[in-house]
Structure formats: C-alpha cells, structure tokens
Amino acid sequence: MTWRPTQPSTLCEAFQSIAVIDPHAVAVRNVGGSQTLTWGEYAHKVRLVAAGLDSLGVARGDTVALMMSNRIEFYPVDVGVQHLGATSFSVYNTLAAEQLEYVLSNAGNKVVVCEPQYVGVIRASRVPIDHLIVLDEPVDGAITLDDLMARGSANTTFDFEATWQAVQPDDVVTLIYTSGTTGNPKGVEMTHSNIAFECATVTSVLPAEFGDRITSFLPSAHIADRFSALYLQMWAGIQITVVPDPRQIAAAVRDCRPTIWGAVPRVWEKLKAATENIVATEPDEQRRQDMQWAFAVASRKARADLAGEPVSDELAAEYAKADAAVLSSVRAKLGFDQLKWAISGAAPIPAETLAFFGGLGVPITEIWGMSELSCICSVVPPAEHRLGTIGKIVPGMEARIADDGELLVRGPLVMKGYRKEPAKTAEAFDPDGWLATGDVVTMDGDGYLTIIDRKKELIITEGGKNISPANVENVIKAATPLAGVVVSIGDARPYMTALVTLDAEGAAAYAARRGLPDASAKALAEDPEVVAAICAGVSAGNAKLSRVEQIKRFRILPTFWEPGGGELTLTMKLRRKPILQKYAAEIAELYSATPGPGVLEPTS
Predict the structure, then answer these.
(1) Does a structural domain hold residue 201?
(2) Could you tell me if 60 and 86 are in contact, meaning their C-beta atoms sit under 8 angstroms apart?
(3) Co-location of 313 and 414 in the same domain
(4) Which of 68, 321, 496, 548 is the most buried (most CB within 10 A)?
C-alpha cells in the first residue's frame, strides 16, 4: 500500500501527494505504449484544465459532463474539474438525445467535454449549454481542449493552490447515473469523503501501491471504472492502460500485464473460454497432451476448492508440477503472470468460473457493492475468499439483515443522496439511517455474505415456491459454454422456462472450427449441433438444480444481445421487464400446450 503520513480527506489532496512521488513515471498509457502521460505532465495539465475552466466561469459546486471513450485525455480533464471543487461526471456514449436531455438537465451542468462524434447528439438534446469543449479537432461553436488549456496558461489571476485546498470532503465529486433498468436513471451523488473512505477501506483489504498496473475498459460513467481506474489511481498511484474498444480487452491485458485487475462475470467467462481454446487449438500433439494433463490436475484442485475440501499432499505436489510445466506459461500468455489480486463484481459469477481460474493460479475474489455505496462494500483477500460468497462487509461499515432477508447497510460509503430526488432519497433509507440495498442475502457465522437474488426479482411460482432466477441462470450458463445470456422465467407460472441467446464470439469460433459458412445468430440457433449442445448444457445444469428450479422448456433466440441494447445494460445486467415485454409471444409459446417450432425440452 502506498505510504503517506495521514489519510487525505479529498481526492485533490490525494492526487497532489501522489503526483510528486515520481514525476517521470508513466501514469496513463494506451495499449502498446505509443502514447503516455507521466505524473509530472498529468499534474501540469490538471492545473491548466482547472485554470481554463475557471476562465469560463466554472466554480466550486458546478457540474461538468464528459462524453468520450476510454482515453488518456479523460484523466487531466476529470481531475482538473475536481480541483475546482466542481462535480465531474461521465455519461454513457450510447445515450440517445432524449436520454441525454434527462441526464444533463438533472445534473444541472452547462459545460460538456466530448469527442467530436458526440456533438450532434448533445446539441439534439436541446439542453442549454454555455460551453462545449471538444477533443481531437475543431468543431464550429465549440472550444478545443488545447484552446481550454491555452486559456488556463494565460489565466494569471487564478490561484490554483488555494482553490484545490478549499475543496471540502462533503463536496460532490461525481454523479453516477444508475443503469435505468426501469424508468429514468437516478443520479447518485458521491462526495470526496465517500470516495476517500472507499479507497482507504478497500486498499486495507486489497493492497495497491504506486506503480501497480490496471486496464480501463468499462465506461467511465460506471462506478466500477471510476473507482478502479481513476479514484484508486489518484489515491495509490496506479498506472492505467486505457482500452477504448472492449474487444481489445484480451490484447490489452497481455500488453499491460496488470498487477491488479477486475472485470464483470461475462468478461471472466469469455477469458475462460479463450483459455480453454488455447488448449484445444494447440498444434503440437505432445504440448497439447501436456496441457490437457495440467488442466485436468487444475480441474481436480478446482473441484476440491469448490467443494471446500482440503487438497491432499499428493494433489498439491502434482499441481506444483503442472504449474511449473504448463499453467505458469498459460498465465503469462494471458497476461496474468504478475497479478497480485483480481476481482469480479456487478453480477453473480458462476462458482465454476471462479474455481477454473483458481485452478489456473489466478485467484479471483467476488466483491459486492452498488453505486449508492461508492462501488465496493464487501470483499476479502483472495486467499480468504469462500466460493459462492461475496466476502465480508468492508472495515468501517455496518450491516444487518432485515426480517425479509434484505441486506441493510450504513456508514461512510453511503451516498449523499439522489440528485434532485429528495423523495426517492428518503425512500432508500429507514428511520435509523440504514440503506436498503435491494439484495436478499444470508450471512454465516464468520460474517461471509451470500447473495440470494435481487429482492424485486425473486420468482414465486404458481405453486408458491421462491426461486432465485440469477442462481438458475448461473448454473445453466456454467454448463452451457455456447450460451451468451440465459433468462429464466417462471413468476406465477407452473414451471420454469428460459430464453437463451448465443455468445457472439463463442459462436463465431464454433462456426470457424466446424467450417460452417454462416455464423449469424439465426443460422446457428437452427444448427442441429448447436441445438444439441445447448440442450445438453441445459440438461447438465438441471442436474444441479432442485426439481422446481429446473428448466422444462427453452427457446434459443436468433439474435445476439449487446451491452447497452434493449435487453442488457452496459454492464451486462438483464433488463428483465423489457425482455418480458419484447419476447412475450415467445414466452407464451413456452407455456403452450402445443408449443410451436423452436421450443425445446432438455434431454434427459
């Protein structure tokens, strides 16, 4: 952990103490390292951005919106805004003009910093903006980022030191707009104090220090990227490799060789599939056999870990040989050979995926949190992680379980409130200040939490049985590699059914291996071998579920679902209500006495 004599009370204070440790060290870089920003350059540009915005009239308490991809310029802009005591927040680049109008109006900002490609949708939102600042190239009626910094250089009356030192812990540092699975998103107000405590408490569990490395690939509008690839950087001095295209994640990891890293479950699942493909496509027969043996040993160890059983001395010795001969080189090929810790969050992850990476020598600890809690609220070190749990509540926070099983928390991580939503803010808390998380959990005697499901998403069947759809979906997905998304259905129904979509990348690889001419979702959804593989996977998953949880019928949809679309949020959470509405006809057929073509029943 980066040492400092006292803990900073604001992110500005944290940044200023970190930036002087080694001004020549690289703070931010692109994949490949052709573009870099040193800590000295970073600090200088923060000063220029702050002074430039001051010349435009931006002051403490104002808000500035950012709309750009994951790129180097994001950092001095966002941190420069912070040093004014203003609120810097990002909007999702996929927002339509109508959605953008709501977010920008709710935030109350009159300055937007963006890439030129987003100028049209920003202007179409009709939100009155005093200043539009663009990157890369001039746009009529806008100021370029270079112009802004030139203004900052010429602003000789601006007292940078006094301004950032006047920033208070209770000042709102950012707004995090919730995914909006139903209705308009709510703007979660996070303060410097919230985020400073988050950085301090998380690094007390998962140490981070100056020079650690991580990638930034999630949208900066999401709290996960803001915390791990911005605020934690400012707090500990982490080097960031920016990844503008999520399809570059695997290549970026190999290039960055992260020491700390995190991803949502679907990314870990894709990396698992890619790892298994390394073994399947190894051209050298002897090498392939060696890899198959090593992964079989790793799988035995993983199964023991998954069952909570001790690893025998014989297995430990064989695993050590497998690691030295094969697994260590596979980790290096993936880019995880220098990894100190890794996390998974935002949604439940199959225990099999955690066990797979544990067997490979990449221990992942599952974390839990929410935007209203500054990101992470429960975590343990990987060595203490228990498969299937989300760890323990972080030091300094309180937790209790309500009579209906809902997790309630309070403490320094809890948001200031929802932007301009006093009624909704009040609804989120009980009279004693406990925040209702919406998650139903259990807690064991050691304080480890296990998520059952979202309170509002629990299924109650026609027979009155309570079922967790997320649990069913995770079990089926773990047994069905070709499946991209599984949506379990059964609320007020006589039995459980599911909608299944194929994973786009996995489907393409499958088609290539089998020489199929058409890798479209429609063609593959009708391919007999694909259908048989999905049926087998659903059957295998059913074998691990209770009778009332088992999927009786399912439909493979002839489409790929993309993050940010009508069915998935940008962090790949299911938009359940829109899915039920959009696919009402397909769902009706799943419960028909004489279902039409395309409705499948798992093989016994």
Answers:
(1) yes
(2) yes
(3) yes
(4) 496
